[in-house]
Specification:
six-stranded mixed sheet
Length: 291
């Protein structure tokens, strides 16, 4: 492990300490040295997990920049909702570490998500890797951790399923929308659809799709060859598969209080009838019981 100091320029414009070993280089401000050490320590396990899934290895040593202040991160982040992002062309990961200690995010899985982006882009040309597939795979492999803050209690995907107001995957091929609701929906759709591919076709065939994309194949053509059906057909199957279950659960959540009050009323009526029947059997019913 080697340490040093570098003066960052451009977007960062501040001095960073450097910590590196043969696997990774970490740039950090003074107070984040423990986080830098942790990054180097967790890398082997995170990397091993990715290799075991995709059967690919990194072709170059990645760099990680740990940002201490949220305000500084927001100046360079793609979205105000993001907590980390990858820059594949620079083999770089940038993390808002303040959210790793004060928010709902766990650093190892967030790190795995971003490292997954670097791994995929080192093997698949940008023109052959749809954005929805890139983001969906990285969410799937990192146990669902997302780059952005999701409102898990009120899934936008659930609402889109009820109203049939999905964003078409073709519209998510090269970029995601900038609006907050649409951006979150794009992430949730990507995660859900990729999960559906794994459950519907199995890991082996999904990896076959990635292998074709790695040869610079056009995504729709590679999809057709791998799954013997079009992307549009599978997308419609996915819509049909998630809509009934999601709609049922969402309707229950929307009317939960009414359901609970109705259940409580039924319990009260049942208890009252039980008392009346018991009194009748004992010959103790009087007019006060009905007043």
């Amino acid at each position: 492990m080697v340490a040093g100091t570098v003066l960052a320029t451009g977007a960062f414009a501040q001095p960073f300490q450097i910590l590196q070993d043969r696997n990774i280089t970490v740039y950090y401000s003074d107070s984040l040295r423990p986080a830098a050490v942790k990054t180097i320590e967790v890398f082997p396990k995170v990397y091993e997990d990715l290799v075991s899934v995709f059967l690919w290895k990194l072709r170059a040593r990645p760099s990680v920049v740990l940002i201490k202040e949220r305000e500084q991160f927001l100046k360079i982040g793609e979205s105000p909702l993001s907590v980390a992002f990858a820059v594949p062309e620079k083999n770089l990961i940038v993390v808002d570490y303040s959210r790793m200690v004060a928010g709902p995010f766990r650093f190892p899985v967030t790190f795995k998500h971003e490292l997954c982006h670097l791994l995929l882009h080192q093997h698949i040309p940008l023109s052959s890797l749809p954005r929805w597939l890139d983001e969906g795979l990285c969410q799937w492999v990192s146990d669902g951790i997302d780059e952005i803050i999701m409102d898990q209690q009120h899934s936008i995907l659930n609402r889109a399923a009820i109203s049939k107001d999905f964003i078409a995957l073709s519209a998510l091929r090269s970029r995601f929308p900038r609006g907050e609701r649409e951006l979150i929906l794009a992430y949730q759709e990507s995660k859900s659809f990729v999960s559906y591919l794994f459950s519907r076709f199995g890991k082996k065939r999904v990896l076959s799709l990635l292998a074709l994309l790695a040869t610079n194949r056009e995504p729709e053509s590679a999809f057709q060859e791998t799954f013997s059906t079009s992307l549009e057909n599978v997308e419609q199957e996915w819509h049909s598969q998630i809509r009934p279950a999601v709609a049922w659960l969402e309707q229950i959540s929307y009317h939960l209080y009414e359901i609970l009050f109705a259940f409580a009323a039924i319990v009260c009526v049942y208890a009252f009838v039980r008392v009346l029947l018991r009194k009748r059997s004992e010959g103790r019913i009087n007019e006060d019981d009905f007043s």
